[in-house]
Amino acid sequence: MKVFISFEPNKKLDNFEGSRLRKTTKGALDINNVGYVSEEVEGSYDLVHLISYEDTPLLERSINNNIPVVVSALMCETDKKAAYLDFKYHDGEITYILCPKAKNFLNKANKVIVPTEGAKELLIDKGVTSDIEVIMPGINLSRFDFTRTEEKELFFRYFREDRNKKLVVAVGDYDNFDGINAFLKAAEKCPEALFYFFGQTKNLKRVPYKIKKTIKNAPKNAKFKEIVADDIYRSALLNATIFMIPEYRYVGVMSILEAMAAKCEIIAREQSLLPGILEDQETAHIAQFSETLVVLVRDVLDGKLRKTAFNAYQKVQDYSIEKYGEELSKLYKETIEKN
Hints:
20% strand; 39% helix; 12 helices; alpha/beta; globular
């Protein structure tokens, strides 16, 4: 059995969630001795594993050649190249839309993989009729080894920051004012800490004016960056006291698992989480409103709240890369046989 794993985003974003899922999937298959290829060469593979619905032409070619297709969905929602849901927020109401192109793509797949039962129910509710299976993507815990001093120091060397200051890391995109505004309010309330927001955009100079103006007036301890190289981002997580999820949009499961593996205290907006990933006051601190998020950040930095990072790390060990590979191998074989 050999699998074609496809995800070719813009090179500038090659280290973001979709690419990290692809790398993790390859690593999981390596451990389980499952062969794979990364290029579309006719006759060289038995199954295609896709991550983005932008790969619709590849899916259709595979169907025409009677090659089964497996799709990973709702795992990388922070990555615009790998996200499936459109997001709308108006007058306090959140609406998630599965666009017709994404829905059609998923309904043509032989099998759809999602990270949680909540994600499965969401797709069914949005009209997805393909066979859906729950498999949480694995995490390579060895990549978050705190004994690797050089890797941990990389963040400070790269950004030339003070090692003695506590660090808060957030991810998102530069189209969401509410998330950025909550992040900034937390930075204002905690001037002694560093706040780094890693966001996805083609060009920081072309973000919406309202957001650009807000960023321009940000306090000095709040830094806004585009997506950085994987090793630098991982170093940021290894040094972060808090991983903050300030947006209303669903955050990618890959980003959450990595924060858990890095032993960060996770502070998240409830609306950004698929059900079944984090539990309030056990593996994270979760709130609905920006004001509460700000208070949680301040209280965690001041050591006033019960720590949840250890429980989160214990939980993420259940999502090993070895287990992920075993589940994929089984699913691949069943899908090929059924096809």
